[in-house]
């Protein structure tokens, strides 16, 4: 059992690169340095989390998936020798894709043949352009070693975004993990934990075309409805007759992204180090996530 | 669940000991890993499952990913997974050896892990390759204490 404590043995701690939510200069290299478990703290004692920002990129599902798995495997090996990497968060969009969880029923695919069977929890879902997907790779030993807590925390991030940025009141439905506005599901969650390292995560419909959800039984909920921030704003604006307010899809996605990472840092009490990365660089470096 | 979490957070802030599910069953004759799997050894064969403490933390298990027959398992490494409420977590083997039987009942009735974690909810049987590894596992008293300490931390 690994216990994380603040070290008190007189060694100079690592100089970490960021203490606040500021952008680091765009890096061409994915750099995550390894250090002893106890030293992954920033100057004001919040745990550091690297954010690989591809919120305007369409990252092929297979590449994002293999990148996550390689980081998780690396961290599991390091943990055996009492080291670790920083927590990280990847935020991106995917080209259209259907995915199933480990125990998902293929019946919910309604005949769709092209999909990924993954190791996450949860049922079938769709990812596509206009949907922001967050894959936090967290060591829950630094947070709370409780998967229920983790799911509620992910939901909390999105609920706060909807409330603080868009004045949309969201809720949880008991027994149905995810974020709901009324009876529409706006964010879906499916995670995997391996030795308390999480991967997969949460997908938020911002401006996504929701038609592909009609081809499946989303999240295995028969008759379940799916919503998006764009549609919800459209409904609330048209009902309030507050004049014309135009958000481009691009603006909506960017605003949601900014709000998501801000709320993520608050809910998980982490200091974020933003690393914008181009898709080309990500694909080039994904096979070697650890460089010092 | 939320009440328990609130209670334990408040308790740890106030530095008082938490009244929690210290009633999770721990069976005397089994050995335990710190990742909350149990093993029952009979000669060179072992039955493996997850503990009452683990199933209680997980909540309703909706799916169990069973290993293939004949797979080699290594102590401390993942051999399968359990899913509850959209989260799948690895289950790690407390012993090394070869999988000789898996509990197919769990395909249709994953809830057996919750209802009967030490009997009907068993997950796999392993032909042990190294009986010495058993010495690294905890007995029931040590495991009970371990669970109490872990729960007190969060």
Automatic annotation (TrEMBL), chain A:
<feature type="domain" description="BPL/LPL catalytic">
    <location>
        <begin position="83"/>
        <end position="272"/>
    </location>
</feature>
<dbReference type="InterPro" id="IPR004143">
    <property type="entry name" value="BPL_LPL_catalytic"/>
</dbReference>
<dbReference type="GO" id="GO:0033819">
    <property type="term" value="F:lipoyl(octanoyl) transferase activity"/>
</dbReference>
<protein>
    <recommendedName>
        <fullName>lipoyl(octanoyl) transferase</fullName>
        <ecNumber>2.3.1.181</ecNumber>
    </recommendedName>
</protein>
<comment type="pathway">
    <text>Protein modification; protein lipoylation via endogenous pathway; protein N(6)-(lipoyl)lysine from octanoyl-[acyl-carrier-protein]: step 1/2.</text>
</comment>
<dbReference type="Pfam" id="PF21948">
    <property type="entry name" value="LplA-B_cat"/>
</dbReference>
<comment type="similarity">
    <text>Belongs to the LipB family.</text>
</comment>
<dbReference type="InterPro" id="IPR000544">
    <property type="entry name" value="Octanoyltransferase"/>
</dbReference>
<dbReference type="InterPro" id="IPR045864">
    <property type="entry name" value="aa-tRNA-synth_II/BPL/LPL"/>
</dbReference>
<keyword id="KW-0012">Acyltransferase</keyword>
<dbReference type="InterPro" id="IPR020605">
    <property type="entry name" value="Octanoyltransferase_CS"/>
</dbReference>
<keyword id="KW-0808">Transferase</keyword>
<dbReference type="GO" id="GO:0009249">
    <property type="term" value="P:protein lipoylation"/>
</dbReference>
TrEMBL record, chain B:
<protein>
    <recommendedName>
        <fullName>Glycine cleavage system H protein</fullName>
    </recommendedName>
</protein>
<dbReference type="InterPro" id="IPR003016">
    <property type="entry name" value="2-oxoA_DH_lipoyl-BS"/>
</dbReference>
<dbReference type="Pfam" id="PF01597">
    <property type="entry name" value="GCV_H"/>
</dbReference>
<dbReference type="InterPro" id="IPR017453">
    <property type="entry name" value="GCV_H_sub"/>
</dbReference>
<keyword id="KW-0450">Lipoyl</keyword>
<dbReference type="GO" id="GO:0019464">
    <property type="term" value="P:glycine decarboxylation via glycine cleavage system"/>
</dbReference>
<dbReference type="InterPro" id="IPR033753">
    <property type="entry name" value="GCV_H/Fam206"/>
</dbReference>
<dbReference type="InterPro" id="IPR011053">
    <property type="entry name" value="Single_hybrid_motif"/>
</dbReference>
<keyword id="KW-0809">Transit peptide</keyword>
<keyword id="KW-0496">Mitochondrion</keyword>
<dbReference type="InterPro" id="IPR000089">
    <property type="entry name" value="Biotin_lipoyl"/>
</dbReference>
<comment type="similarity">
    <text>Belongs to the GcvH family.</text>
</comment>
<dbReference type="GO" id="GO:0005960">
    <property type="term" value="C:glycine cleavage complex"/>
</dbReference>
<dbReference type="InterPro" id="IPR002930">
    <property type="entry name" value="GCV_H"/>
</dbReference>
<dbReference type="GO" id="GO:0009249">
    <property type="term" value="P:protein lipoylation"/>
</dbReference>
<dbReference type="GO" id="GO:0005739">
    <property type="term" value="C:mitochondrion"/>
</dbReference>
<comment type="function">
    <text>The glycine cleavage system catalyzes the degradation of glycine. The H protein shuttles the methylamine group of glycine from the P protein to the T protein.</text>
</comment>
<comment type="subunit">
    <text>The glycine cleavage system is composed of four proteins: P, T, L and H.</text>
</comment>
């Amino acid at each position: 059992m690994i216990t994380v404590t603040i070290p008190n043995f007189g060694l100079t701690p690592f100089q970490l690169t960021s203490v606040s939510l500021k952008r680091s200069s765009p890096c061409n290299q994915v750099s995550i340095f390894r250090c002893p478990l106890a030293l992954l703290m920033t100057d004001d004692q919040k745990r550091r989390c690297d954010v690989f920002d591809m919120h305007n990129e369409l990252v092929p599902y297979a590449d994002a998936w293999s990148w996550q798995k390689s980081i998780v495997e690396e961290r599991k090996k390091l943990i055996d020798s009492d080291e670790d990497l920083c927590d990280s968060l990847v935020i991106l969009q995917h080209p259209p894709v259907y995915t199933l969880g480990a125990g998902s029923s293929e019946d919910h695919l309604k005949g769709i043949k092209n999909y990924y069977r993954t190791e996450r929890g949860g049922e079938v879902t769709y990812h596509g352009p206009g949907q922001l997907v967050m894959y936090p790779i967290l060591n829950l030993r630094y947070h709370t070693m409780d998967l229920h807590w983790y799911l509620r925390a992910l939901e909390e991030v999105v609920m706060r975004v909807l409330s603080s940025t868009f004045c949309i009141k969201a809720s949880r439905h008991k027994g149905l993990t995810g974020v709901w506005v009324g009876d529409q599901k706006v964010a879906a969650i499916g995670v995997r934990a391996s030795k308390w390292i999480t991967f997969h995560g949460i997908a938020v419909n911002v401006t996504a075309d929701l038609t592909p959800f009609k081809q499946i039984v989303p999240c295995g909920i028969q008759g379940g409805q799916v919503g998006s921030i764009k549609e919800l704003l459209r409904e609330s604006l048209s009902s309030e007759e507050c004049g014309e307010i135009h958000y481009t899809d691009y603006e909506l996605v960017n605003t949601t992204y900014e709000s998501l990472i801000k709320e993520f840092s608050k809910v998980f009490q982490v200091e974020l180090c933003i690393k914008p990365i181009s898709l080309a660089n990500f694909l080039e470096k994904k096979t070697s996530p650890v460089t010092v | 669940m939320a009440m328990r979490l609130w209670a334990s957070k408040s308790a740890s802030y106030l530095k008082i000991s938490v009244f929690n599910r210290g009633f999770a069953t721990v069976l005397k004759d089994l050995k335990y890993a710190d990742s909350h799997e149990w093993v029952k050894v009979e000669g060179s064969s072992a039955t493996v499952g997850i503990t009452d403490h683990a199933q209680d933390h997980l909540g309703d298990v909706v799916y169990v990913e069973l290993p293939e027959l004949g797979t080699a398992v290594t102590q401390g490494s993942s051999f399968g997974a359990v899913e509850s409420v959209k989260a799948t977590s690895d289950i790690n083997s407390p012993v090394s050896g070869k999988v000789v039987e898996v509990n197919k009942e769990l395909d249709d009735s994953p809830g057996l892990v919750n209802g009967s974690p030490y009997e009907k909810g068993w997950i796999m049987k392993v032909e042990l390759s190294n009986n010495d590894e058993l010495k690294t596992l905890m007995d029931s008293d040590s495991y009970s204490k371990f669970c109490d300490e872990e729960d007190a931390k969060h």
